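Dig into this one:

. . .
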Amino acid sequence: MAATVAKFAPNHNYDETIARARKQQEESEKISLQGFTGSLAEELSNVRFEGEGREAIEALQSFSQYVDDDTKMRKLKKAGQQDLAVQLCLAYDPTGSKYPFTRFDEALGRTLAINQEHFDRSVKDAFRDLQGAVLLAQCVCLLMAVCVYLGFRPRLAEYV
């Protein structure tokens, strides 16, 4: 369902939302789009990395074009022009609905790749930081064992 990806409150639409998102991005503001909900709204409000916002806006733009094509296709079907509706639905050229959907999918993939790259880098950095912590923990444990032994040694001597 398209509403899970992008849904608009009354007086809001794709064009107006895309324009607001681009303006906020150009002004280096955190993207906040009132009247817009769905998966893409969540992504746009959660932009953290360079290039991520640009790709998410591109995904929204492409999805908008796909929804427009889907609306045209449904109108053609209702008007009894089934052949034209099927042609629009199956065409991969820029006039068909597959083209903007493919662009949407690619932009979304690039957005996810940016997030994945930063996630992988963070995990790698965390493991690198923890390597030193493991050695430190082993040294502390050895020091504790030596201290316990030295603390009990005088008491053990009392029993011998």
